[in-house]
């Protein structure tokens, strides 16, 4: 008798949790997606404002990287290239 009662209660609890999950999980995921979209738009907002303030055809370079080769120019092999037809 105790086993049957335990099984009935556990099945009822399982169905209750399952039905509540169907209701609340989509709302939870939607709120997470909305929060991620807001964070993304806040990160992209300064870049969009910079684009809008600049007149068309004007280019502004904020930083030009200085590239230094790790291999000196006097080292290395030169390989001739021949086009094969």
Task: Characterise this structure.
The protein is an all-alpha fold and 85 residues long. It is 61% helix and 0% strand. It contains one helix and no strands. The chain has one helix at residues 2-53. The longest helix has 52 residues, at 2-53. Keywords: Membrane, Transmembrane, Transmembrane helix. The chain crosses the membrane at residues 6-25. This is DUF4834 family protein.
Short note summarizing the structure:
By secondary structure, this protein is an all-alpha fold. The chain is built from 1 helix and no strands. The mean pLDDT is 81.
Unreliable stretches covering 5 or more consecutive residues: none
Helical segment tally?
Answer: 1
Instruction: Give the helix proportion (percent range).
Output: 55-70%
What is the mean predicted local confidence, pLDDT?
81
Percentage of β-strand residues: under 5%
Element-level helix/strand string: H
The major sheet is characterized as: none
Specify the structural class. mainly alpha
Radius of gyration: 32 Å
Q: In total, how many beta strands?
A: 0
Distance between the termini: 88 Å
Envelope shape: elongated
InterPro entries: DUF4834
Keywords: Membrane, Transmembrane, Transmembrane helix
Protein name: DUF4834 family protein
Organism: Mucilaginibacter terrae
């Amino acid at each position: 008798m105790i086993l049957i009662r335990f099984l009935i209660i556990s099945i009822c609890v399982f169905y209750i949790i399952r039905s509540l999950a169907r209701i609340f999980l989509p709302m939870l995921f939607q709120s997470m997606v909305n929060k991620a979209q807001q964070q993304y738009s806040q990160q992209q907002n300064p870049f969009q404002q910079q684009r809008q303030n600049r007149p068309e055809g004007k280019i502004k370079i904020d930083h030009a990287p200085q590239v230094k080769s790790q291999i000196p120019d006097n080292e290395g092999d030169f390989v001739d290239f021949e086009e094969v037809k």
